[in-house]
């Protein structure tokens, strides 16, 4: 029964290094040792993943995967949590200078979506 429960979950993906050259997307849940083998990494796109911040289900897309790698140690986040983190940066920028906030936010949004 416990095995069935482990099988039926949505994986919670993060990118972990296998060796110096290769990193793989692997499930971070304690009862699961699923990972996407290096020769199947291209299959990861479009798969469901749990969000590391809110545990909602998100879909692995190139932009979200890039954000996870660049900004969250390889841990997948949903769009809401990515937006919340970008808003956090807005507050930091506001303290510095609010003159060109729109430009700064537009740039952050572009960076986050690449
Ligand atoms: Zn899993
Ligand atoms: Zn989330």
Structural commentary:
With about 110 residues, the protein is an alpha+beta fold. It has one domain. The chain contains four helices and four strands. The protein has helices spanning about 1-5, 60-70, 80-95, 100-114, and strands at about 15, 25, 50, 55-60. The strands form two sheets. The protein has a two-stranded antiparallel ribbon with strand order 1-2. It has a two-stranded antiparallel sheet with strand order 3-4. It is globular, with a radius of gyration of 16 Å. Mean pLDDT is about 80; it is low at about 1-5 and about 95. The structure holds zinc ion (2 copies). One zinc ion binds near residues 32 and 34. One zinc ion binds near residues 27, 29, 32 and 34.
């Amino acid at each position: 029964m416990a095995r069935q429960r482990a099988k039926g979950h949505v994986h919670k993906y993060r990118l972990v290094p296998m060796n110096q050259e290769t990193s793989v997307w692997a499930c971070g849940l304690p009862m699961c040792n699923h990972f996407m083998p290096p020769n199947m990494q291209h299959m990861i796109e479009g798969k469901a993943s749990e969000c590391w911040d809110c545990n909602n289900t998100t879909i692995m897309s190139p932009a979200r995967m890039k954000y996870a790698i660049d900004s969250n140690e390889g841990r997948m986040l949903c769009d809401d949590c990515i937006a919340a983190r970008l808003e956090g940066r807005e507050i930091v920028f506001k303290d510095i200078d609010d003159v060109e906030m729109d430009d700064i936010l537009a740039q952050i949004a572009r960076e986050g979506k690449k």
